[in-house]
Amino acid sequence: MTVSDELLQQHGLTPGEYQRILEMLAREPTLTELGIFSVMWSEHCSYKSSRVHLRKLPTSGKRVLQGPGENAGAVDIGDGLAAVFKIESHNHPSFIEPYQGAATGVGGIIRDIFTMGARPIALLNSLRFGPLDDPLVRRTFAGVVAGIAGYGNSIGIPTVGGEIAFDESYTRNPLVNVFCLGIANAHEIVKAAASGPGNAVYYVGAKTGRDGIHGATMASAEFDDKSAEKRPAVQVGDPFMEKLLLEACLEVMKTDALVGIQDMGAAGLTCSTCEMGARGGAGIAIDVSLVPQRETGMTPYEIMLSESQERMLLVVKRGREQDVERIFEKWDLHAVRIGEVTTNGRLCVKNRGDVVADIPTASLTDEAPLYERPMTEPAYIADARRLSLSALGKPAAPSGLFRRLIASPSIASKRWVYRQYDHMVRTNTLVVPGMGAGVVRVKGTRRALALSVDGNGRYVYLDPFAGAQLAVAEAARNVACVGAQPVGATNCLNFGNPERPEIMWQFARAVEGMAAACRALDIPITGGNVSLYNETDGRAVLPTPVIGVVGIVDDASRIVRRAFQREGDAIVLLGSSADELGGSEYLKTIHGLVHGSPPALDLAREAALQRLLANGVAQGLIRSAHDCAEGGLAITLAECCFDTGLGARAEVAAVDAATAEFRDIATVFGESASRVVVSVDPQMVDQLADLARQERVPAAIIGRVGGDRIRIVVDGRAVIDEPLAETERIWSNAIGGYFESQRAIA
Amino acid sequence: MKFAVVVFPGSNCDHDAYHAVKHVLGQEAEFVWHKDASLAGADAVILPGGFAHGDYLRTGAIARFSPIMREVRRFADAGGPVLGICNGFQVLLEAGLLPGAMLRNRSVKFQCEYVFLRVEQTDTPFTAGCRRGQILKVPIAHGEGNYYAEPDVIERLERNRQVIFRYTTATGAVTADANPNGSVRNIAGLCSDRRNVVGLMPHPERACELSLGSSDGLVVLESVVTFLSQGAVAAAR
Fold first, then answer.
1. What does pTM read for this prediction?
2. Cβ contact (<8 Å) for B10 and A240?
3. pLDDT at res. A221
4. Domains of chain B by range and CATH?
C-alpha cells in the first residue's frame, strides 16, 4: 500500500508519527492497521499531549481502591462498599448532533461504571453553552438536555445534580461533561484486563454499523464550517439495549466465569481489544467476520473503527462459556465468540482467516506517542488581569443590579432543565438537583454520598493555576455544606488546541493548580478525561477544567440543605469577605467584562472551613448551609430564601474597597472564596462560634431568617431590599422565558 | 402477605417498588420475570414503572404480549389486586385491563416533579386506607402521561366512579394549572369496573419515606394489606 500525505492527514497522523509506525511494524501498515493506529494515537485515546502533565495529580490515598487507568476510579466508602465514579466529555458530538451526542455521552459513562461491577445509582452533568438569546444556542441547549433526559430516564438512573453556565466562547463548542457513580462490593471490583491464553473473547450487545467511524479522531480536531458534514461520525444511542446490557453484565459478574470486561466506547472494537490485551500483558486474536453486523459489505477497517453504541467485550474463562451465554440469552442478547486470548502480546485481526492487522498491543497503548508540547504564557493574560473599576463610571443601584443578576441564566434556577431529568428513580435522592451538591443515600447502610461538579472558566482564563484550585475548593465545599467529608474526585479537562503553546500553558498551569488543591484538601483524583481541541474557527472555549467531588456522610439523617428552615434562626457567615470582583458574574453580566484576578484562595483556611462544616453538621449545630459562589453574598442569601419562602434580613460591614464607589457592589456581589452562609438555631450560635474559633474560621452573625423580603444592609444603609416572592419568580422563570414562544405553540 | 413485582426488560422502578414493599412496608416481595408463567403465589401484583422494551413503539405496546401478562389477566379476572404504576399503568391500558390511552405530555417534555393527588374513591384495594378527598403529595416522572379516552368512555368511568385519583392543587381544587400533563378531567388514576385493577401515573412507591420528600404514597401500599387481611378477595387465588 502507498501511504500518501493526504491519507495520513485524513487519519490525523503526522509524518513523524507515520515514521514511528514503520519502525514499530518493520513494514508498511495495511489500511486497517493505519486506521487502528490513527484512532489509538488520537489525542482522545492516547492523551499524547496531556499525559506528561497528568502525572502531577495526586491519585492515591487510604480510601482509593482504583486509581486512573481502568474504566473508572473507586474509593472505599465503608460497610464493605466502594463508590465507583468517573466524568467524561462528549463535547464535539453534542455540537454536531445535540440530542444523540449528549445521549451517547450518558450511555458511555454509564458503561464505564457498570463495567467495573458497580450498579450505577447517580448521574450529574456539567454543561456550558453560549448565550441563550442566540437561536442556535437554544437549539443546542434544548437538544442536549433532551438527550441527557432521554437516555438517563429510560435506563433508570437518576440525574441528581450538576451545573450549567453560559458564555459566548461556548456558542459553537458547547461542553457536555457527564459524571456517573455506582456502588460495588469493594472486593468484587471487576478489571478490564485480558489474561489466560485460550480464554474466549466475546462480543455482546448491539450490532456493528458504520456509525461513528473515526469519532475519536473527530473529537481530536478543531471545528470549522464543515463540521456539520461530520454527522455520520456521531453515534445513535439505544438506552433500552444498554439497560439490558447493564442488567445482564451485572448478572454475569455475580458468577465467577468472567476474566475481564470493557465497553466499546471511543475507537470501539480497536480500543477495547488492544487495551484489554495490554493491561493483562496478553495478546488478543479476533476474526471480524464473526462480529454481528447491522449493514452489509462492511470492511475490516470499518468494523474495527466503528463506534456503534451499547457494545461490550468480555473475556470468559475456558469451560464457562455456556454459563455466560445462558445469562445473555435470558436478556435476549447474543453473546458471540469472536476470538481468544493469546500469549504473543499482539492484536491480531483476521477476516475469514486472513490476517488484516497484526500489531503489538503495547505500541498502541503504553508506547503511543507522548509529547511535551511547547508552552507560552498567553499575551492576553497581562491585560486581562488588569481591572479598572473607576473606568466603568458610577455603578447603578445594587437593587436593580441584583434583579438583573438573579435573571442571568448562569445564576437563574435550572428547574426547566432538571424537571426533564428523572431525578428520583431508585428512591435514593435526598437532595434534588439545583440545590448545590446532589445527595444519594446508600441503601443497606446509614450513609449517604454527596456529589458536586464544578468549574469556572472565567477564573481559569484569568489565572489557570488559581482558577483550577478554586474549582476544586468549590466542589469540595459544596459537598462539605451537606455535612460530607470529600474523599475522592474525578476531573474533566476541557481546553482548546494543545498544539498552540498558549493553550498548552493554560492546561499545564491548571493541572498544577488542581494538583496543589487536591493535595491540600486530601482529595485524590481517581480518573477522568481530557478533552482538547475545543475550538471553532480558531477560537478556543474558556479553559474549563471541571471537577467532580464525592463526599461521604456517615449519618444520612443528619444532612443539611441549602434553604433556610426556620423563622428567627441566626444567619451566620463563615469566612471573610474582601474587595474581589475579578472574574465575577457581576462584571460579566452587567459590564460584559472578564477582567481582574480571580478571588484569592488560602487552601489551609479552606480545609479548616470544610472541617468546621462537617463537624458543625455532625453535631447538629447547623440547620442549613450554602456556599457563596457566582454573584456573591447577595445571590447566596437569595438562594437560601427560595423554596421555603422564608426571607432574610442581613447587615454587614462594607469591604475595604480600592475604588470607593464600588464598595457596596464589592460587598454584596464580590466572590471571595471560602465563604459559606449557614443558618443556626439562636441557642446554638455560641457552640458554633466556639467550633469556628478552634478552626480559626471567622464566623459572624449577619442577620435573621424571616419576613417576606431579602434585605441587605451595608454599613447601616439598605442597599438591597426586594420582595422575596417577586425575586423568586424572576429567578424561576428566567431560563424558561427564552423558550416561551415554543411553549405558546404547545 | 406477598407482592409480585413484574420485571419487564426495561422496567426501572422494579427495585423501588420492591424496596417500598419489603423494607418500608415490611411485607414479602418477589420479582417475577416477564417470561415466567406464574405469579409465584402472590397476593397482590405490581406492574412497575420504566420503559418496557424501550417503549420505542407506543408505551406498553410490546409488554402486553409478555407471557406473564396472561397470568396477570387471570389473576385480575379472579379479583386479585393489581397495581400499575406509570409504565405499568400504560401496560394495563395496552393490555385492555383498563380503558383509554396515553398521549404525550402537553409540554411535549418528560416531567419529573411532585404533584398533588386527590383520592376520589376509597372502595378499591389500593385506596381502602385513604379518606375520600385526601390529598397526597406524590411525584410524577413521565413523558406520556396525558390520559385520553373518548367522551362516552369518560362519562362511563365517572358514572361508575372509576376515576380514583385526580391531579389537584395542594388544597384539592381541580384546576388547569394543577394538571401537569393535560389529562382529561385531571385524571391521574383509574380502576377497572370490578375495582381490583388500579393504574396511576404518579409514583406512590417513591413517596414512602419522609427523607425522600414525602411519605404520602405509603397509604396506597398499606391499603392493599388492610384490604386483603380483611379477606375481601381471599378467593382470588
1. 0.95
2. yes
3. 65
4. 2-230 (3.40.50.880)
